[in-house]
Amino acid sequence: MSFNMYMPTPILFGLDKLDELADTPRLPAGDRAMIVTTNGGSMMRCGYYQRVQSLLGSRQVASILCDQISPNPESDEVEAAAAVARAKGVQFVVGLGGGSALDAAKAIALLAANEGAAMWDYMSAGSGKGLTPEHPALPMVAIPTTAGTGSEADPWFVVTKSGSREKIGWGCDATFPALSIVDPKLMLSVPPGITAITGMDAFFHAAESYLTINRQPASDLLALETVSLIAGQLPILVDEPENLELRTVLAWASTSAGICEALAGCTGLHSLAHAVGALHPEAPHGAALIALSRAWFLIMAEAEPERMGDLAMAMDQAAEDPAGCCDPADFHPLFTSMLEDCGLGALGLADLGVQEDEIEELAENALWTMPALLDATPVELDKEDLMAILAASMHPDEMERL
Ligand code: NAD
User: Alpha-carbon distance 15 to 136, whole Å?
Assistant: First the structure.
């Protein structure tokens, strides 16, 4: 057994934890912050932005707002915001919202500290230059309002190169949040459809961290627990979106899966989903993963039968009346029925706007932009294999065994 472990982010987790922004000694030093949200106005409408601004104000921290970030952030957006942050002497960046806001805040914090740099100077795949940043990122505070990406617990951020078809994830020790506040009350306002899709995103982070060749003992423990929690609770939460206890369980599942991402990382399922997001930026990230997942897990059941059996057992144990499943073949029916219970059973790539004639480009894109996660996948997959997964995922409810 051999592994490295680094998980430096202090996480304040629980109901009303946002109030601790007023007095936590963990807040980064400085009296000028930038608050980053996405551009749909939900943080303003829900009053979360005003609360964060006022809590920072109570500590004599003046804040400026960047609310120009798209869901699935773009490089132009984070570069422009970083220029503003530099010009205004911002000392730390607060990401408030779903993964898009948190990821954008990390990217802005990095670029603000590195004058003259462009986002693609650092990307190490696709057309990125693979440079090492000269300076560490500014400190970043993560306040997630969706339960899915786990960005509050990992160093990763995902950005699309403006005007191109490249969506790439990046991160380093300096892009772990300096502080994360996970308050499940902020997630009560997430509509059921987004709750289901983001909850499944967390499921994939956990399951993929259990399958990657980079797995390690701590992420294994968290992954099985997370898979069990999501299998048991997400379908109920989708029906009961105001259930605060279930919101809390899912918030923890997301953070726990984020720790798995930090400790072990994901697999090529994410390479394919990012390719879909690159060609179809309007497709939610979690939805792309869901569409691809059934074909992906069929291949994993052959590549890693024992571990897929463990995942089946973790899902089965969450049932009211467990059937004693522990065989890799048990995973598929349990997984399909969970998707159906969450209202996601029929979701395929065709529903996200993907055309049959894009399949080859998507496979090439995944290999070009996110090769590291394909390399971490426990079975070697070439372009033809990826094309077969993509083709089967157009209408996965009609899918035959690959
Ligand atoms: P998102 O951040 O794009 O948000 C989706 C929508 O939900 C937005 O319109 C947003 O305004 C709205 N919303 C968010 N919180 C809300 C709330 N509390 N109430 C009402 N509406 C709310 O979606 P996401 O799935 O959280 O994040 C997706 C992004 O995160 C993608 O860019 C993806 O690539 C990235 N990602 C990052 C990681 C990571 O480890 N850093 C992991 C997975 C995905």
Answer: 32
Furthest C-alpha separation in the chain = 61
256 CA → ligand 1 middle, Å: 17
pLDDT in tens, 14-68: 999 999 999 999 999 999 999 999 999 999 999 999 999 999 999 999 999 999 9
State the CATH number of the domain containing residue 167: 3.40.50.1970
User: What's the mean pLDDT in 72-101?
Assistant: 98
Tokens representing 124?
Answer: 């190490």
Residue 301: give its domain's CATH number.
1.20.1090.10
pTM (whole model) above 0.90: yes
Q: Residues 67, 137, 87, 71: what is their CA dihedral angle, to the nearest 10 degrees?
A: -20
Ligand 1 site residues, Cβ closer than 6 angstroms? 38, 40, 42, 46, 71-72, 97-101, 103, 145-146, 148-151, 154, 156-158, 186-187, 189-190, 194, 198, 201, 261, 285-286
Which structural domain range is residue 287 located in? 192-401
The answer on pLDDT for 400 being more than 70 is no
Choose which residue among 149, 183, 209 to substitute to test ligand 1 binding: the one with the highest number of ligand atoms within 8 A of its C-beta. 149
Are 106 and 204 within one domain? no
Substitution candidate for ligand 1 out of 68, 143, 158 with most atoms within 8 A of CB = 158
Question: Whose CA is closest to atom 38 on ligand 1?
Answer: 149
Q: Is residue 6 part of a domain?
A: no
Statement: residue 7 has pLDDT above 90: yes
Section 364-381 average pLDDT: 98
Residue 4 pLDDT class (50, 70, 90 cuts): confident
**Tokens 């090529």 sit on residue:** 268
Could you give the CA distance from residue 293 to residue 390 in angstroms, rounded to a whole number?
Answer: 10
User: Residue 272: CB partners within 8 Å, gap ≥ 6?
Assistant: 288, 292, 296, 362, 363, 366, 386, 389, 390
Which tokens is 364 given? 């090439």
